[in-house]
């Protein structure tokens, strides 16, 4: 029996190989962070991590000594300062509601679980917990993405495609953001889990009259995962598009659905799944609304309380970060658009490729057949739904976001990884396609280069972030 080799035969034990590659890549990024100038352009991190000295006798000298080192300090930059401080003392200032409620609450919950008293909950502790969550979530999201592609059983050369897809997520251009106390890693884990469960829910073709209860449970839990992801990052709301799409495409057969208990159960779980995604967005908004708009006199209420849709998130993004339609389209931001352009291209191009693909395969005699098995069509419909989500993300990032964040928020969407992986596998086939080979090679080179350079800039508290 041949022994496993992570370099020559990684598919002999793909999970072990992925863990090894993930570890190696993390060591590279950690080295980049450690070698970056300290304390960097801004001293906010130093001030934050030293603030626990105010707790006096409750200060943990060992933990404080560790958190003073460059390793943890170089992870807590930019928004990570907000995430760590909010997790430590809760939401105080209005603009802090722009930062994922779900992620800060999880950090706070875990930190308090391992703290003896409330005074032990310090910024350095929350920073360590945030970094730990991000590392673990990224590793798990790599494995979930691998399982997601494997679940698409009718893709060609699927084991190799699944492995390369997961590797691409390891070296994602999000880079150090997948290790720092940011929500990107946890969002990826939850979003990939939602997509995986959604694919599993469609494994039984709709043409089969006795749809399994397990499929509908998967569908409902997928919505819950997307909803939890939305509490981490608001763009998780876009994943609800797949449920809306399913409901809209079912409307022509609504009378038949209402008369069939199995179909009625399916459409009910689809609607409930979509509602779960909406709840993930609305719950933090309601908590903030209760705090700012349901207490005190009407004259003291904030302006956003009287809006038709009183969302504190959209308000603070608009007021404090100038987020809005075409607001980012200024000449000074042109370099940031150029930095994010490759990722925008990958999102739109992979979506276009998915919509253009036809479900044509060959039978053993070589005759072309369309949809030879119902599952093939079902899986392609899933991919088209994923493409719709990517398109919405890309277009809103282009028109309404701080555009450079597209390189990190795209890390939680599986389709573009999959399409690039398919190109890479096609390029290594006997009938080598030079165009595919050049594209795959250039894409990987860009991802690695961007992640390393961005990691050094991030750790030095320099843009882009």
TrEMBL record:
Principal subcellular localization: endoplasmic reticulum
Cellular component terms per the entry's GO annotation: endoplasmic reticulum membrane; mannosyltransferase complex
Enzyme Commission number: 2.4.1.-
Domain of life: Eukaryota
Pathway entry: Glycolipid biosynthesis; glycosylphosphatidylinositol-anchor biosynthesis
Topological type in the membrane: Multi-pass membrane protein
Chain ranges passing through the membrane: 20-38, 127-149, 161-179, 238-255, 267-287, 334-355, 386-406, 444-462
Gene Ontology BP terms: GPI anchor biosynthetic process
Top class in the EC scheme: transferase
Region forming the signal peptide: none
GO MF terms, alphabetically ordered: alpha-1,6-mannosyltransferase activity; GPI mannosyltransferase activity
Keywords associated with the record: Endoplasmic reticulum, Glycosyltransferase, GPI-anchor biosynthesis, Membrane, Transferase, Transmembrane, Transmembrane helix
PANTHER family, per the entry: GPI MANNOSYLTRANSFERASE 2
Primary role: Mannosyltransferase involved in glycosylphosphatidylinositol-anchor biosynthesis.
Similarity field: Belongs to the PIGV family.
Protein's recorded name: GPI mannosyltransferase 2
Organism, scientific name: Patellaria atrata CBS 101060
Upper classification of the organism: Eukaryota, Fungi, Dikarya, Ascomycota, Pezizomycotina
């Amino acid at each position: 029996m041949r022994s496993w080799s992570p370099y020559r035969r990684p598919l002999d034990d793909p999970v072990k190989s992925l863990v090894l590659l993930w570890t190696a890549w993390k060591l590279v990024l950690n080295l980049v962070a450690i070698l970056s100038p300290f304390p960097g352009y801004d001293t906010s991190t130093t001030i934050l991590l030293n603030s626990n000295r105010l707790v006096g006798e409750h200060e943990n000298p060992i933990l404080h000594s560790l958190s003073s080192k460059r390793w943890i300090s170089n992870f807590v930059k930019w928004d990570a300062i907000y995430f760590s401080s909010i997790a430590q003392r809760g939401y105080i200032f209005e603009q802090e509601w722009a930062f994922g409620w779900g992620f800060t609450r999880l950090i706070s919950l875990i930190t308090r679980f391992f703290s003896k008293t409330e005074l032990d909950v310090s910024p350095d502790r929350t920073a360590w917990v945030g970094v730990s969550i991000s590392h673990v979530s990224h590793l798990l999201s790599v494995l979930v993405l691998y399982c997601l592609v494997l679940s698409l059983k009718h893709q060609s050369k699927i084991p190799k495609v699944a492995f390369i897809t997961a590797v691409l997520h390891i070296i994602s251009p999000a880079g150090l953001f997948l290790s720092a106390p940011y929500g990107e890693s946890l969002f990826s884990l939850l979003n990939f889990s939602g997509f995986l469960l959604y694919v599993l829910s469609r494994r039984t073709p709709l043409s089969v009259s006795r749809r399994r209860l397990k499929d509908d449970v998967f569908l409902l839990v997928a919505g819950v995962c997307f909803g939890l992801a939305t509490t981490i990052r608001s763009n998780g709301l876009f994943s609800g598009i797949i449920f809306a799409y399913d409901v809209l495409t079912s409307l022509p057969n609504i009378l038949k659905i209402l008369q069939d208990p199995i179909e009625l159960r399916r459409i009910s779980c689809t609607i409930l799944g979509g509602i779960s995604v909406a709840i993930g967005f609305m719950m933090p908004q309601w908590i903030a609304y209760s705090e700012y708009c349901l207490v005190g006199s009407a004259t003291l209420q904030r302006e956003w309380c009287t809006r038709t849709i009183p969302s504190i998130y959209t308000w603070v993004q608009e007021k404090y970060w100038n987020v809005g339609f075409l607001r980012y389209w200024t000449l000074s931001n042109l370099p940031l658009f150029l930095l994010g352009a490759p990722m925008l291209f990958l999102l739109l191009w992979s979506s276009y490729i998915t919509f253009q693909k036809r479900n044509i395969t060959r039978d053993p005699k070589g005759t072309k057949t369309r949809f030879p098995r119902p599952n093939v069509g079902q899986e392609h419909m899933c991919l088209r739904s994923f493409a719709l989500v990517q398109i919405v993300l890309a277009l809103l990032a282009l028109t309404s976001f701080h555009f450079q964040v597209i390189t990190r928020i795209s890390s939680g969407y599986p389709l573009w990884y999959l399409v690039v992986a398919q190109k890479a596998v096609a390029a290594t086939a006997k009938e080598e396609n030079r165009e595919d080979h050049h594209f795959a090679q250039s894409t990987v080179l860009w991802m690695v280069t961007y992640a390393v350079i961005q990691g050094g800039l991030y750790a030095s508290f320099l843009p882009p972030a």
